[in-house]
Design a protein that fits this description.
The first copy, chain A, contains six helices and 28 strands. The first copy, chain A, starts with a strand and ends in a 6-residue tail after the last strand. The first copy, chain A, has three domains: 2-122, DNA Polymerase III, Chain A, domain 2; 134-255, DNA Polymerase III, subunit A, domain 2 (DNA Polymerase III, Chain A, domain 2, Roll); 258-374, Proliferating Cell Nuclear Antigen (Box), CATH 3.70.10.10. The model of chain A has no long low-confidence stretch (mean pLDDT 93). Chain A has helices at residues 7-18, 79-88, 139-150, 207-216, 270-284, 334-343; strands spanning 2-6, 32-38, 41-47, 51-58, 60-61, 64-65, 67-71, 73-78, 93-98, 103-108, 111-116, 134-138, 164-170, 173-179, 183-190, 201-206, 223-228, 232-237, 240-245, 264-269, 291-298, 301-308, 312-319, 322-325, 329-333, 348-353, 360-364, 367-374. A nine-stranded antiparallel sheet of chain A has the order 16-13-14-15-28-27-26-20-24. Chain A is 18% helix and 44% strand. Chain A binds chain B through residues 78, 81, 84-85, 88-90, 103, 110-116, 275-276, 278-279, 282-283, 286, 310-318, and chain B through 78, 81, 84-85, 88-90, 103-104, 110-116, 275-276, 278-279, 282-283, 286, 310-318. Strand 11 of chain A pairs antiparallel with strand 23 (312-319) of chain B, so a sheet runs across the interface. Chains A, B: Pfam families: DNA_pol3_beta, DNA_pol3_beta_2, DNA_pol3_beta_3. Chains A, B: One of its GO terms (biological process) is DNA strand elongation involved in DNA replication. Chains A, B: It is found in: Cytoplasm.
Chain lengths: 380, 380
Amino acid sequence: MKFFTQKDRLTAAIQDVLKAVATRTTIPILTGIKIEADKAGIKLTASDSDISIESFIPAEEEDKENAEIIEPGAIVLPARFFSEIVRKLPESVIDLEVVDHFKTIIRSGNIEYNLNGLDAEEYPRLPKISEDGAFTLPADLLKTLIRQTVFAVSTSETRPILTGVNWKIENNQLTAVATDSHRLAMKKVPLNSSSGGDKVYNIVIPGKSLNELVKILDDSRDQVEIVITGNHILFKAKNMLFLSRLLEGNYPDTSRLIPTDSKTVVKLDAKEYYGAVDRASLLAREAKNNVIKFSTVDQNTVEISSYTPEVGKVVEKIRSLSMEGEDIKISFNALYMMDALRAADGTELTIYFTGAMRPFVIKTDDDDSLVQLLLPVRTF
Amino acid sequence: MKFFTQKDRLTAAIQDVLKAVATRTTIPILTGIKIEADKAGIKLTASDSDISIESFIPAEEEDKENAEIIEPGAIVLPARFFSEIVRKLPESVIDLEVVDHFKTIIRSGNIEYNLNGLDAEEYPRLPKISEDGAFTLPADLLKTLIRQTVFAVSTSETRPILTGVNWKIENNQLTAVATDSHRLAMKKVPLNSSSGGDKVYNIVIPGKSLNELVKILDDSRDQVEIVITGNHILFKAKNMLFLSRLLEGNYPDTSRLIPTDSKTVVKLDAKEYYGAVDRASLLAREAKNNVIKFSTVDQNTVEISSYTPEVGKVVEKIRSLSMEGEDIKISFNALYMMDALRAADGTELTIYFTGAMRPFVIKTDDDDSLVQLLLPVRTF
């Protein structure tokens, strides 16, 4: 194998696949990046068994030459060294050549690296995914969907299924739900039949996979093709493939957890409220559960407070933009509330309470596509 | 005690003293910040026994009102909470009031914090420093002096005296030396009699203290007054006092370590050379001592290389701007070389070798005020 390529393109492709490189593994070759070159271009692959990423550098693209393939072939190079070497090379053109016994020469200007590679034939094959069952979403919407739900997954392995995000596709709608049993985030996205909305799926994607995917997707309106098989989900973006295994097991039915009625409805300025929760949580962090208190004072005022005997207390009054129904005093985890507020874009938010001991619902800007649920904390 | 003050001034003063707040201590009150107010202004103090910092907010300064003191007094507040609270308050004016039993109310807009304070009388007194024996240096020169030497102190406690920087003042000159016995940095700064250069001192300042001091000094030409007593050194800048204990013991005589003759003199472009050392060190980091090899090739070329059997090798040729004397092949620790190059400002550097087994000297831009010494590593 021998090719020339642009440093910036190679660096970007390495950065994409690097997120899937195994750090602790019983399969040493997975700590490497597989590099394949043929006349179409250069393909990089990395995998940690859970996630696999492929990034492709087309030899030519829109009349621009990204790479010149002198001799096709394949090699596996140690990911950490390969990425640091390429990043630190000063010239814009890099020459990579495999010589005998998987020895690989990387040249740029007056610099010559000689790296010990591994046989690409030894690299595990990725599962073959059929093209059937594809639907599509624009990259930016997919990113929003992930960002607004994945933070609520459980980090505890006691119920492994809750470490993933549940995606249900039916009736031209994708519903994504994540919960750690203290809070829940649910996002609905319309699909149409031409983009595959007539299919029916019910899958659970590991939160970790989605957190990595969101980092390498760009914020474009480009369509991402999504293919679901029995055990895997494949995301196909421009010059990039992202494959994740799915979690096995049944995701709990969360639909009946979300209250449909409410006794108190309070509308707040999102930024002002976030600031008050953040400030009240400062003292609450000393105690173990970050509990702060939310109390309606009158039609126009809400009080956010917290009290930690060893440290002190804080009381802040903020405006309520509107308030309907009964007065309420309720306590909850400030960090969960801040996560919920960060996930929701929008300048106004509405909280629907059904009593101090019942879960409550948060929506922003009267947008029903994102519903968040928080459980109160009992304080005595 | 009760006062009003500007949030930005209070935040800046807290940030200054925060670096001296004790994190692990047997004296719990040292995890707090002492706040004193009198008609002149507000003084904050923090100390971890090794370092003490005072920051002062003058009530009035250049016709600007920074603080209004309603009632003088003093209190000690928990540093972490106090700093986070002040930083997160949304309004520009903060009102602080001590009520009964050291309870302290911090108000800003519609927010009221109630913090449990401690009796300021219980806070340890800082050592009294007489004004005698002061000399002065501009803040920016003091920062350069520290930055160019402190990186070379030892991090090992096997010879505690080497964890400090040796300052010798005599004959209108300050000489600062740091060494961990593998490398050495020596900086000379001229003093004049009016700025205290006629005094004679030989002290060792803990590297940790200097690292903190350099963070809070600004880059101005303002004079910093320096007072040395038997056990302490005091730095007095505008509205700020920084006190450090000194290390006890005799600093080794390093003057005879620096070779006065040389057999090979090589002049290099500093940036080009740094890049080559950095790139060669990539592979060397896998081995334990980061060793790379420097070889003169001809009058105009130097080769930087490294070889780690498990990973591979790298060879880079760079220009030498000039070369005099014998050819040389020498090995050294790449990270020490990079530290030395970062400390030295300048576009050209000259290395004076006296043989492959002898320490060698690095200077930049023919500037004799900074001399760096590196020990070679034997490779076979």
